[in-house]
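Dataset card, provenance and construction

Sequences and ligand SMILES were collected as paired inputs. For each pair, a complete structure of the chain with the small molecule in place was predicted and serialized as structure tokens. The example below shows a pair involving zinc ion. Curators did not alter the output after generation; any descriptive sentences attached to a record were derived from the structure itself.
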Amino acid sequence: MQTPSHFIMTAALRYPLRRQTIRISTWGLLIGSILPDIPFTLLTIIYEIYYRIAGISVPAPSIMEYLHFDLFFNDPIWIVGHNTFHSLVVNGVLLVIGYWLYRKNGRTFLFWLAAMTLLHTVIDIFTHSSDGPLFLFPLNWTYRFASPVSYWETANGAVYFAIFEYTLDALLLGFVGRKYLQHRKGNTNAT
Ligand SMILES: [Zn+2]
């Protein structure tokens, strides 16, 4: 799924999650929803600029294709960067540490951050066909689940999935907007 969709979904999920016994950390939730994709975005920007400025020619039709179809699968920096927070193993360990911190001193940031990086990873596993996350990283550096559905590969239903994804985004944004207005109205009435 696209990074903004992960963010919107988590922003909406914040409302039902508020009923949980573990007090939510809004920052933990929102950062955790997009954290797995941040290294990929930064690597793309840095490498694109570097290759252009240095004038390095690449063995692909474009720098972007070289980065996303070659380095993404073969370069250790890209593999570590992209898969550290797209790993069920890493995120699972962080969730356990987060829960331990919550029990120890009541801090919930890491717990909710890890809960959302886990949710992000599970969604990505089922919405990527050829380029799914190495969700067993760092125990396994090559295994990717080939989902029959891809959010971007047209051979795997990307056109239909995009309709679903944008519709879901619009509905969730409407929901979050309504909740926000209700909250503001409540505050105004209270003053
Ligand atoms: Zn992702």
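Derived descriptions for this record:
The mean pLDDT is 95.
The chain has one domain: 3-176.
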